[in-house]
Amino acid sequence: MAEDSHVLEAGQAPTPFTAAEIRMATRVGKSITRRVESAGADPFLLISTYVECDEAGATLERSRLSLDGSPLGEPEVMKATWLDLQRHASFTADDTTIEPDRIETGIGALDCLRYTVRHGGTDEIFWFATSLPGMPIQQMTRTDGQIVESVSVVDYTIA
Fold first, then answer.
1. Which long-range contacts (CB under 8 A, 24 or more apart) does 73-82 make?
2. Which of 9, 48, 107, 136 has the fewest CB atoms within 10 Å, counting from its CB?
3. pLDDT band per the 50, 70, 90 thresholds, residue 46
C-alpha cells in the first residue's frame, strides 16, 4: 500500500495539503494579508509575501502593520522548505477532528477543511481553503469557551 503524503508520521492527522501542492500553488509575489485580534491587544495586520521560491522552498517576508497601515517594527524574513510549511498543519491525530466547512471570508465564500485541535481546555481551529493550498484562511483559539485570538485573511494576491 502506498504511503499517504498528507500524513507526515505515525500518529499524526493528515495535513490539508502536501509539500508539492503548496509549492505548485506558490509563486514569487504571492501575498496574504491577515487581520490578527488577540484578547487585551490592539488588532493589527500581518502581511506574508513570498519573495523567493525554488524547488526546495521559499523565503517569506512578514510585516506587521497597524490597521491604519503604519509599520509596527521591521519586516521579518524567514526561509522554509515546502515540507516545513506542510509540517505547520501536522497535528496529533487523537487531538484533531477534520470536517468540511464553507465559510464567508474577507475574500469571498470558500470551501474549507476545518481542523479542530484540542489541548485540554483550549481549542485551536483552522480553516484551510481547499482551493488555496498553504496557510489557513482563518484560525481561532478558544480557551475555556472564550475566544482569545482570531486570525482572518482580508486580502490574498497570487502573483
1. 77/51, 81/19, 81/56, 81/57, 82/19, 82/20, 82/22, 82/23, 82/56, 82/57, 82/58
2. 9
3. very high
